[in-house]
Design a protein that fits this description.
Helix content: 10-25%
Distance between the termini: 22 Å
Number of strands: 9
Strand content: 15-25%
Number of helices: 3
Radius of gyration: 15 Å
Number of domains: 1
Largest sheet: 7 strands, mixed
Structural class: alpha+beta
C-alpha cells in the first residue's frame, strides 16, 4: 500500500496547481527529494506538467536513449501516470485557494501534503489529524525551503533537512 501525497505550487494569482503522488509520500522520501531536487519554481512547474505520479524521484526526465515506462523504469527517474503509463485524466489540478487545496486533500486519503511557495519554499502536511479544530495556518515571511502541514497538529511549517531524517 502506498503512502500517498499531494504536491502543489502556489501561483502568482494565489491559485494552486497540484499533483497526486502514490508511493513514498513521507517526509524522509518525498520531502527530502523536494528539498534537494525540486527547489525552484521553474523545476516545480516542470514537475506539475508531468501530472499525477506513481513515484517522485530525483530526476524529472528519463534518458531518451533508454526505455522508461511503468514496467521498465530508469533508476531515480519520476514515474508519471500520463507520460510513462499513458493514463488519461491524470493532469495537474487547479485549486482556487489554499482552503480548496486543503479541503480536497482532507477528503482524498492523502497522508502528506506539500506546497511550494514563491519564496522558493515548500510546505508539507501529513493528513492524519485528530480533529478539524486543530487546524492552524502559520505564515512564514522571509523564509525559504519547502513547507509542510503536520497532520497531528494541522500546522503549516517550513520543511527542513532535519524533518527528513
Amino acid at each position: 500500500m502506498g503512502t500517498r501525497s499531494y504536491i502543489g505550487i502556489r501561483n502568482n494569482d494565489k491559485t494552486i496547481t497540484g499533483i497526486y503522488c502514490h508511493w513514498d509520500g513521507q517526509v524522509n522520501h518525498t520531502g527530502r527529494i523536494l528539498l534537494e531536487h525540486y527547489n525552484t519554481d521553474v523545476i516545480v512547474k516542470e514537475l506539475m506538467k508531468l501530472g499525477d505520479l506513481s513515484s517522485l524521484q530525483e530526476k524529472l526526465n528519463p534518458n531518451t536513449n533508454q526505455p522508461h515506462n511503468f514496467q521498465n523504469q530508469q533508476e531515480n527517474v519520476c514515474v508519471s501516470y500520463w507520460r510513462d503509463c499513458g493514463q488519461k485524466g491524470t493532469e495537474s489540478r487547479m485549486f482556487t485557494n489554499i482552503e480548496k487545496y486543503e479541503s480536497q486533500m482532507n477528503n482524498s486519503g492523502v497522508e502528506f501534503q506539500y506546497l511550494f511557495e514563491h519564496d522558493d519554499s515548500f510546505q508539507f502536511y501529513p493528513q492524519r489529524r485528530a480533529n478539524k479544530s486543530d487546524k492552524f495556518q502559520y505564515l512564514f515571511e522571509n523564509e525559504s525551503g519547502w513547507r509542510f502541514r503536520d497532520g497531528h497538529t494541522g500546522v503549516w511549517k517550513v520543511l527542513t533537512v532535519e524533518d527528513c531524517v
